[in-house]
Amino acid sequence: MEGKTSNEVFNREKAEATVKELRQSFRAGKTKTYEWRAAQLEGIARLIKEKESEITQALRSDLAKPEMESYLHEISLAKSACLFALKNLKKWMKPEKVPAAITTFPSSAQIVSEPLGVVLVISAWNYPFLLSIDPVIGAIVAGNAVVLKPSEIAPATSELFAKILPEYVDSSCIKVVEGGVPETTALLEQKWDKIFYTGNGKVGRIVMAAAAKNLTPVSLELGGKSPVLVDSDVNLKVAVKRIAVGKWGCNNGQACIAPDYIITTKSFAPQLVEALKVTLERFYGKNPLESADLSRIVNLNHFKHLTDMLDEENVSDKIVCGGQTDEKQLKIAPTLLLDVPHDSLIMKNEIFGPLLPIVTVDKLEDSFEIINSMSKPLAAYVFTKNKKLEQEFLSNVSAGGILVNDVALHLANLYLPFGGVGESGIGAYHGKFSFDAFSHKKAVLSRGFAGEAGARYPPYTPEKQWILKGLINGSIVALFLALFKRF
Amino acid sequence: MALITGKKCGDEEMGALGLETEVAEARTTFDSGKTKGFEWRKSQLEALLRLLQEKEEDMLKVLKEDLGKHRVEAYRDEVGALTKSVDNALLNLKKWMAPEKVSLPLVAVPTVAEIVPEPLGVVLVISSWNFPIGLSLEPLIGAIAAGNAAVLKPSELAPATSEFLAVEIPKYLDCEAIKVIQGGPQVAEQLLDLKWDKIFFTGSAQVGRIVMTAAAKHLTPVTLELGGKCPAIFDSLKSSRDQRMAVGRVAGAKWGSCLGQACIGIDYLLVTDEYAPTLIELLKGVIKEFFSNSEHLARIVNKHHFQRLCNLLQDESVAASVVHGGSVNAEELFIEPTILLNPPLDKEIMTEEIFGPLLPIITLKKIEDSIEFLRARPKPLVIYAFTHDEKFKQRIVDDTSSGCVMFNDTLIQYLCDTIPFGGVGQSGFGQYHGKFSFDNFSNRKPVGRRNFLIEFSFRYPPWNEKKLQLLRHIYRFDYIGFVLCFLGLKR
């Protein structure tokens, strides 16, 4: 277990030594067997079960996360990822037989999944337990050795990992390194076989540039402004509840797939705002700052980022609900804003908090221009019963994932790839996609000496060219001649 | 043959401004949605097929000019292979474009979900000089099939081919969406500064790093098809017929494809001390049979690489290990098939990718030692092994890592559309060919749908213990427990 003690700093030498040790373990073949992988996953499943209250406590300490959210969004998702992996491990590890082509006849082909080697997982602060353990599960299930660097902005969870993970898994192959920028930099200088990063685009660029030096492939799970298009023909009560729980019920908006802003028609906006207000009061009471069901803002830095957005000129007067803040407790109430300027901070940057701007348009078709003027988000949502609008949304909006008439759910489906596109990221994971993200798919092609196409070899003649042409075009006659004609 | 667009594309001088304007046009074209439809993609692929058929002679000619490739080799390795790929893409395009239905867990019921492939946008393809048509158009097939607009920068080291592509592609393909921009490192640098939705690079590791670093600025995903020292393990094969065939395949892979300047060509051989002399004799025989006429061999691409290869032989100990060949012709940029026996492992010929007609044979005490030998070295694009021993084959697959493993033959993995083609570690990342090309240039977007009918109130705050209990049951797929709890009959 590598941790930051009072006297030691995790520097380049330590990083080198860590990677060296993991490489040796990997070379020795430890992580490749089914037994080892299953044992680690079972260990993690036990950890989640036995340490549930410690995890919940750490999340409360780091984020004032309500127990329900900790259970719903972190613990249960981690558990299902683990159990799903255990259930499917054998199947995923099996080579996949594929048909060979007529051009290579006779031959047999398969695709073998093999681990990449020694991988680095850097996780984020908003779902500090899930976003650490989920990629680590993927790394393990694919047979890699792994270093986890949890976010230092969620220190209680980071410390918890450093303390308890070694008790449940093989720490000669799975390590936790705590720390901030210096430690992460030291880690990024090493040569990894894959780097999996969850966080923001600015650091994502740094990670990818560091990876480029060693030609290391990366997965970047980033963010963006996830839009919610709301049509007037929906069941408003249900729609608003789903939007609300997806926004404020997810770490008080500090989630990469939380709705960032709403677009609706000018005529429908007043109804939407009213419905949201009613729902917000039902969820969080008249004094939301005192509700135990709302996470707090993670730290002062981020708190200021949000209040800066609210205080901007021409924005502060657009607040139609909420707006209360408490710096001491780092709490901000669910806040609705109507028609803020398009060039305001709140519309230019990912909000990642409990502020929800509502942008109005004359007709919904105008919304695509607004959505596509921003970079591609991790998720995009549309509430409508109109099939045509739904189809237009699907064709015109590029995002990591799209959900119709609900919010955030696709995160929980282990059969859907979870990842971004463009500025929202590179690569996907969850379920088998996690296994694939940390594997190399090796093609294995096997031939015998039964048939030999003399036409392949020099000296070349027009006749050989004719046969090759036919062979490549799948002609049986050419194949016959290719195999049996002697040159 | 109708051009999709009414615009006439001629050759325009490409200054820096011209380059950016071209790319901007590709972007505008993509944003207009033109490239997304099935009809457009089909028409472009059909146009490519026509290009391959109508301009076949011209292609064979420029490949001869740039690399001295014999027309049969050029057809076999580039034109023919591309024809197969376009046919395959046309055959499967509809299927590839179709959304993929997915199953969902109970908590989300009654949601329906699918994975919808969508184009990434405007992609950059940078290709290499050794298979200048193949390595330009093969990725382009994938880009087009996936519905993207594309800019191709062919290698300036194969100038006749680059010119050919710049002139002919606009005549056949939609020149508002597919662009060819010629140039060297400077032009590449300018292109890399721009924002792309994907960059597909084939070339050396050194330039691969530059490409990825540039891509990082925009968080652009990349595929890097690099190289490495691809070994061929040569086990003793019982029958002399098999041996002869195997040696033919080795010779074909070493010298018969661009004179060894191929990323999947054999770099060096691993064989037992005992068998080496036999192998060398067999190789000499096959070289005589196949390559007596140097017309049937490509040449070295340019002076720089010619000098690089000659330099590999400069070292005394390396020169002393030559057992066949070794003669060079600077004027014709030709080096004859050369075999070396056990050159020192620390010399450049054994530490760097050779990419030429020099074939080191490294001998080992027993053939199984080849596995340790390979594990100590960077992962190559392919490991070849000639053997009948099934156990040994399994060990090679299990204990070594490479882009691909090919048993008892060489090079043909390039033609197989059902297996992914790409490297790992130093040989690169990302894969293509067949559907892998389509996926490489796509964003696989999950789309989930719900209706408003069924609503679970326990999803929402305010939270309480009962809601927590219900969720515990749901997440464990304990439906009975859930129902009981819901009805208040269970705590």
From TrEMBL, chain A:
Transmembrane segments: none annotated. GO terms for biological process: aldehyde metabolic process; response to abscisic acid. Residues 11-444 form the Aldehyde dehydrogenase domain. InterPro entries: Ald_DH/histidinol_DH, Ald_DH_C, Ald_DH_CS_GLU, Ald_DH_N, Aldehyde_DH_dom, Aldehyde_DH_NAD(P). The keyword Oxidoreductase applies. Belongs to the aldehyde dehydrogenase family. This is Aldehyde dehydrogenase.
From TrEMBL, chain B:
The active site is at 225, 263. The keyword rRNA-binding does not apply. Gene3D superfamilies: Aldehyde Dehydrogenase, Chain A, domain 1, Aldehyde Dehydrogenase, Chain A, domain 2. GO terms for molecular function: aldehyde dehydrogenase (NAD+) activity. It catalyses: an aldehyde + NAD(+) + H2O = a carboxylate + NADH + 2 H(+). Residues 20-446 form the Aldehyde dehydrogenase domain. InterPro entries: Ald_DH/histidinol_DH, Ald_DH_C, Ald_DH_N, Aldehyde_DH_dom, Aldehyde_DH_NAD(P). It holds the Pfam family Aldedh. The keyword NAD applies. Keywords: NAD, Oxidoreductase. GO terms for biological process: aldehyde metabolic process; response to abscisic acid. One of its GO terms (cellular component) is cytoplasm. Belongs to the aldehyde dehydrogenase family. This is Aldehyde dehydrogenase. It comes from Rhynchospora pubera.
